[in-house]
Amino acid sequence: ALTRSAKHFTKSEVECLVKLFDTLVAKASSQFAGAGFDRTVFRDTLYNAFGMTDDVVLDRVFSTFDRDNSGCITVVEWVEGLAVLLRGTLEEKMKYCFAVYDLNGDGYISKEEMFQMLKHSLLIQPADEEPDEGVKDLVEIALKKMASTYLFIPFLLQDYDRDGKLSFTDFEKAVRDENLLLEAFGPCLPDIK
Hints:
By secondary structure, this protein is mainly α. It has 2 domains: 1-88, Recoverin, domain 1 (Orthogonal Bundle); 93-181, EF-hand (Recoverin, domain 1, Orthogonal Bundle), CATH 1.10.238. It is 51% helix and 6% strand. The chain is built from 8 helices and 4 strands. Strands 1-4 form a two-stranded antiparallel ribbon. Strands 2-3 form a two-stranded antiparallel ribbon. Helix 2 (39-50) crosses helix 3 (55-65), helix 3 (55-65) crosses helix 5 (90-101) and helix 6 packs across helix 7. The radius of gyration is 18 Å and the shape is globular.
Protein backbone atom coordinates (compact mmCIF):
# COMPACT_ATOMS: atom_id res chain seq x y z
CA ALA A 1 0.00 0.00 0.00
CA LEU A 2 1.58 3.22 -1.22
CA THR A 3 1.03 6.57 0.46
CA ARG A 4 -0.18 9.74 -1.20
CA SER A 5 3.35 10.88 -2.08
CA ALA A 6 3.72 7.89 -4.42
CA LYS A 7 0.79 9.26 -6.43
CA HIS A 8 3.27 11.71 -7.96
CA PHE A 9 4.00 8.82 -10.34
CA THR A 10 1.68 7.38 -12.97
CA LYS A 11 0.80 3.69 -12.83
CA SER A 12 3.23 2.90 -15.66
CA GLU A 13 6.01 4.82 -13.91
CA VAL A 14 5.41 2.84 -10.72
CA GLU A 15 5.56 -0.37 -12.74
CA CYS A 16 8.93 0.71 -14.20
CA LEU A 17 10.24 1.55 -10.74
CA VAL A 18 9.14 -1.86 -9.46
CA LYS A 19 10.98 -3.55 -12.35
CA LEU A 20 14.09 -1.54 -11.52
CA PHE A 21 13.64 -2.50 -7.88
CA ASP A 22 13.57 -6.20 -8.83
CA THR A 23 16.78 -5.73 -10.82
CA LEU A 24 18.47 -4.05 -7.87
CA VAL A 25 17.31 -6.77 -5.46
CA ALA A 26 18.94 -9.34 -7.73
CA LYS A 27 22.24 -7.45 -7.32
CA ALA A 28 21.95 -7.28 -3.55
CA SER A 29 23.12 -9.84 -1.04
CA SER A 30 20.66 -12.63 -0.29
CA GLN A 31 20.35 -11.71 3.40
CA PHE A 32 17.03 -9.95 2.78
CA ALA A 33 15.50 -12.97 1.00
CA GLY A 34 14.35 -10.93 -1.98
CA ALA A 35 12.52 -8.37 0.16
CA GLY A 36 14.80 -5.48 -0.72
CA PHE A 37 18.33 -4.23 -1.26
CA ASP A 38 21.05 -2.93 0.99
CA ARG A 39 22.92 0.34 1.53
CA THR A 40 25.66 -0.47 -0.97
CA VAL A 41 23.27 -1.10 -3.86
CA PHE A 42 21.26 1.99 -2.89
CA ARG A 43 24.34 4.23 -2.84
CA ASP A 44 25.63 2.86 -6.16
CA THR A 45 22.22 3.42 -7.75
CA LEU A 46 21.88 7.04 -6.59
CA TYR A 47 25.46 7.72 -7.63
CA ASN A 48 24.91 6.30 -11.13
CA ALA A 49 21.43 7.75 -11.66
CA PHE A 50 21.79 11.18 -10.08
CA GLY A 51 25.51 11.81 -9.66
CA MET A 52 25.15 11.98 -5.86
CA THR A 53 28.68 11.45 -4.60
CA ASP A 54 28.85 12.57 -0.96
CA ASP A 55 29.07 9.37 1.10
CA VAL A 56 27.83 11.01 4.29
CA VAL A 57 24.82 12.51 2.52
CA LEU A 58 24.08 9.21 0.74
CA ASP A 59 24.08 7.38 4.07
CA ARG A 60 21.60 9.91 5.42
CA VAL A 61 19.42 9.62 2.30
CA PHE A 62 19.43 5.84 2.78
CA SER A 63 18.28 6.30 6.39
CA THR A 64 15.51 8.62 5.23
CA PHE A 65 14.28 6.06 2.68
CA ASP A 66 14.65 3.16 5.15
CA ARG A 67 11.77 4.27 7.36
CA ASP A 68 11.57 1.06 9.41
CA ASN A 69 15.35 1.08 10.03
CA SER A 70 15.70 -2.48 8.77
CA GLY A 71 18.87 -1.89 6.76
CA CYS A 72 16.89 -2.86 3.68
CA ILE A 73 15.00 -0.74 1.13
CA THR A 74 11.65 -2.39 0.40
CA VAL A 75 9.65 -1.78 -2.76
CA VAL A 76 7.27 0.59 -0.94
CA GLU A 77 10.17 2.57 0.58
CA TRP A 78 11.82 2.70 -2.86
CA VAL A 79 8.80 4.08 -4.74
CA GLU A 80 7.71 6.47 -1.99
CA GLY A 81 11.25 7.75 -1.43
CA LEU A 82 11.77 8.42 -5.13
CA ALA A 83 8.37 10.11 -5.34
CA VAL A 84 9.58 12.77 -2.90
CA LEU A 85 13.10 12.90 -4.33
CA LEU A 86 11.96 13.37 -7.93
CA ARG A 87 8.43 14.77 -7.82
CA GLY A 88 7.92 15.99 -4.29
CA THR A 89 6.20 19.25 -3.43
CA LEU A 90 8.26 21.95 -1.75
CA GLU A 91 6.75 20.91 1.58
CA GLU A 92 7.69 17.26 1.05
CA LYS A 93 11.22 18.17 -0.01
CA MET A 94 11.67 20.45 3.00
CA LYS A 95 10.68 17.62 5.33
CA TYR A 96 12.95 15.21 3.48
CA CYS A 97 16.00 17.50 3.51
CA PHE A 98 15.45 18.39 7.15
CA ALA A 99 15.32 14.67 8.02
CA VAL A 100 18.59 14.10 6.15
CA TYR A 101 20.34 16.79 8.21
CA ASP A 102 18.72 15.89 11.56
CA LEU A 103 21.25 13.18 12.32
CA ASN A 104 19.83 12.07 15.67
CA GLY A 105 16.17 12.46 14.70
CA ASP A 106 15.29 14.81 17.56
CA GLY A 107 13.50 17.36 15.38
CA TYR A 108 16.32 19.91 15.43
CA ILE A 109 19.49 20.53 13.45
CA SER A 110 22.10 21.32 16.08
CA LYS A 111 25.43 23.06 15.61
CA GLU A 112 27.15 19.68 15.83
CA GLU A 113 24.90 18.22 13.12
CA MET A 114 25.55 21.24 10.88
CA PHE A 115 29.26 20.77 11.51
CA GLN A 116 29.16 17.06 10.64
CA MET A 117 27.31 17.69 7.37
CA LEU A 118 29.26 20.77 6.27
CA LYS A 119 32.71 19.38 6.97
CA HIS A 120 32.13 16.64 4.39
CA SER A 121 30.42 18.89 1.85
CA LEU A 122 32.59 22.01 1.61
CA LEU A 123 34.68 22.02 -1.53
CA ILE A 124 37.51 24.23 -0.34
CA GLN A 125 39.03 25.65 2.80
CA PRO A 126 41.42 28.60 3.10
CA ALA A 127 45.00 27.31 2.94
CA ASP A 128 45.99 28.91 6.24
CA GLU A 129 42.98 27.67 8.21
CA GLU A 130 42.22 24.36 9.88
CA PRO A 131 39.24 22.75 8.08
CA ASP A 132 37.30 22.13 11.30
CA GLU A 133 37.70 25.75 12.37
CA GLY A 134 36.43 26.99 9.01
CA VAL A 135 33.33 24.81 9.29
CA LYS A 136 32.68 25.93 12.87
CA ASP A 137 32.88 29.55 11.73
CA LEU A 138 30.42 28.85 8.91
CA VAL A 139 27.96 27.24 11.31
CA GLU A 140 28.12 30.29 13.57
CA ILE A 141 27.56 32.59 10.61
CA ALA A 142 24.57 30.57 9.47
CA LEU A 143 22.96 30.63 12.89
CA LYS A 144 23.42 34.39 13.20
CA LYS A 145 21.74 35.02 9.83
CA MET A 146 24.71 36.69 8.26
CA ALA A 147 25.46 36.45 4.55
CA SER A 148 27.96 33.73 3.68
CA THR A 149 28.85 31.43 0.81
CA TYR A 150 28.25 27.72 0.55
CA LEU A 151 29.59 26.13 -2.61
CA PHE A 152 29.49 29.63 -4.13
CA ILE A 153 25.75 30.01 -3.42
CA PRO A 154 24.74 32.91 -1.14
CA PHE A 155 22.45 31.82 1.67
CA LEU A 156 20.83 33.05 4.84
CA LEU A 157 19.71 30.94 7.74
CA GLN A 158 18.21 32.17 10.96
CA ASP A 159 17.82 30.55 14.32
CA TYR A 160 14.50 32.33 14.87
CA ASP A 161 14.03 31.29 18.48
CA ARG A 162 17.74 31.77 19.27
CA ASP A 163 18.19 28.39 20.95
CA GLY A 164 21.42 27.51 19.12
CA LYS A 165 19.79 25.00 16.77
CA LEU A 166 17.42 25.00 13.83
CA SER A 167 13.90 23.65 14.23
CA PHE A 168 11.88 22.60 11.21
CA THR A 169 10.02 25.92 11.53
CA ASP A 170 13.34 27.82 11.33
CA PHE A 171 14.38 25.75 8.31
CA GLU A 172 11.00 26.11 6.59
CA LYS A 173 10.97 29.91 6.95
CA ALA A 174 14.45 30.18 5.46
CA VAL A 175 13.71 27.79 2.56
CA ARG A 176 10.46 29.55 1.66
CA ASP A 177 12.49 32.78 1.37
CA GLU A 178 15.28 31.10 -0.62
CA ASN A 179 14.70 27.64 -2.10
CA LEU A 180 18.42 27.03 -2.59
CA LEU A 181 18.57 26.50 1.17
CA LEU A 182 16.96 23.09 0.72
CA GLU A 183 20.50 21.81 0.36
CA ALA A 184 22.23 24.21 2.73
CA PHE A 185 24.12 21.43 4.54
CA GLY A 186 24.88 19.07 1.67
CA PRO A 187 23.63 17.92 -1.75
CA CYS A 188 20.78 15.50 -1.04
CA LEU A 189 18.56 16.10 -4.10
CA PRO A 190 19.25 15.06 -7.72
CA ASP A 191 20.49 17.86 -9.92
CA ILE A 192 17.99 19.33 -12.35
CA LYS A 193 19.00 17.16 -15.32
